[in-house]
DNA sequence: ACAGATATAGGTCATATGACCTAATTCTTC
DNA sequence: GAAGAATTAGGTCATATGACCTATATCTGT
């Protein structure tokens, strides 16, 4: 679709060469944040197919030129959006696992609560749905997601280590992977997800019941 | 993007008015099938953003005119593709649950095997990833998926009915929903999925171990 | 005040797309 | 062989897009 694919030829322009959302001043950094917020909105509402630089600029209340000053290309926008979001999400995951002390079982309950709460946001659910679809065609997205899920899984592994120390590390790793997959699948059908119409009331309730059954009798999870 | 949004005004053309992949002759039906195959390929490879009528026509080895003879609009293509695929998938689900007699536990194992086998296909996994993303913006897709998952869940409910008859129907329904969500989540990380790099080896193995643990001791699943 | 970072508005260009149309063939079926 | 289905090739048109460019204006820290 575009005209030139000219990839930063040797001779750069004499003037500055801004890239990748680099902002020097505070106000600029703020702008970059707003632009990414807008990109997030557009991606979630209109999907990747509907994500255009013009659309993002308009949503952000910023000129196209300004947007392209910070993000010369569409890829740059997606890249930055992804990096920002996944980084924050990862921090939240770890904050959950480490914070909120107490006995392991209680911590697991808290962690589950936190995940479910996150999934109440249609934004987050839809964002991930887009990323899953995108990952197949964009190695950068796939890599970023791989990093994110590795961190996510590591958090769950840590929880499992306290809950059932008798499991070998490898098996903990696998069980954590199963749990992460389970929660991601859940996000499809839960409150914020786009398929909540395909769901069933009382899902979360049942999940918690199941959780208690597994936690109380024997540490076999 | 398009020019006219003219929605079938009252006065139709005097000549025939083909729509929705309607084919009268056998060869035509075959063509429609090939076109939908091609659409599937393109959707999986290039995503919805890359799904163009011209692209599908080329992939199918068919002229654009011919494609539009069967499917006047892009929506028609997606609609038909969805209908065909989900219908077949649903039939397979039910075939699994009913077929392959034996004791309930054995049937569950078979069903799990079948689901995992399906997920080995990158095609299927990616197709669903696209649909999940699409569902938020296309009510038709959301509805079709809702029907599909309702059928899927019904199959699982039937299995649960035999495995643990002591559960109330409502709880069976909820547990089935949890299981379906789990399997869908699994598809993200498994062999065919686009995030297999974010996964862990031995996932399926662990899943089966967990399954046996749940099946053997007590019927508490 | 000065340099450089931010920001705006506007334009260009090649390419792509969906929807629409038509005239001319080739198959199928009866 | 005639009617109608199926198919092709080609064209038109409005709209959109990404990338690229520039001149000008404003803001910021020193």
TrEMBL record, chains A, B:
Pfam families cross-referenced by the UniProt entry: TetR_C_6, TetR_N
Region named Disordered: 1-25
Q: Which domain of life is it from?
A: Bacteria
DNA-binding region at which residues? 52-71
The alphabetical list of record keywords is: DNA-binding, Repressor, Transcription, Transcription regulation
Q: Which Gene3D superfamilies match?
A: Tetracycline Repressor, domain 2 (1.10.357.10)
Q: InterPro entries, alphabetically?
A: BetI_C, Homeodomain-like_sf, HTH_TetR, Tet_transcr_reg_TetR-rel_C_sf
GO MF annotation list: DNA binding
Which segments constitute the HTH tetR-type domain? Answer: 29-89
Please list the coiled coil stretches. none
Keyword S-adenosyl-L-methionine appears in the UniProt entry: no
Q: What is this protein called?
A: TetR/AcrR family transcriptional regulator
For this protein's source organism, the top of the classification is: Bacteria, Pseudomonadati, Myxococcota, Myxococcia, Myxococcales
């Amino acid at each position: 679709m575009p005209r030139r694919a000219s990839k930063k030829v040797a001779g750069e322009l004499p003037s500055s060469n801004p890239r990748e959302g680099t902002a020097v001043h505070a106000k600029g950094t703020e702008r970059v944040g707003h632009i990414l917020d807008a990109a997030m909105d557009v991606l979630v509402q209109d999907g990747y197919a509907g994500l255009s630089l013009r659309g993002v600029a308009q949503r952000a209340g910023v000129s196209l030129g300004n947007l392209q000053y910070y993000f010369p290309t569409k890829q740059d926008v997606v890249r930055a959006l992804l990096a920002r979001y996944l980084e924050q999400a990862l921090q939240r995951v770890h904050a959950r696992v480490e914070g909120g002390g107490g006995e392991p079982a209680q911590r697991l309950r808290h962690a589950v609560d936190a995940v479910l709460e996150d999934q109440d946001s249609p934004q987050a659910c839809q964002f991930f749905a887009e990323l899953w679809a995108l990952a197949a065609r964009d190695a950068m997205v796939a890599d970023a997601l791989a990093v994110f899920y590795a961190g996510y899984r590591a958090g769950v592994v840590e929880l499992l280590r306290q809950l059932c120390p008798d499991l070998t590390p490898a098996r903990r790793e696998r069980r954590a992977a199963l749990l992460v997959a389970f929660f991601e699948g859940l996000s499809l059908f839960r409150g914020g997800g786009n398929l909540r119409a395909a769901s069933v009331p009382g899902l979360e309730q049942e999940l918690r019941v199941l959780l208690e059954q597994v936690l109380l009798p024997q540490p076999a999870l």
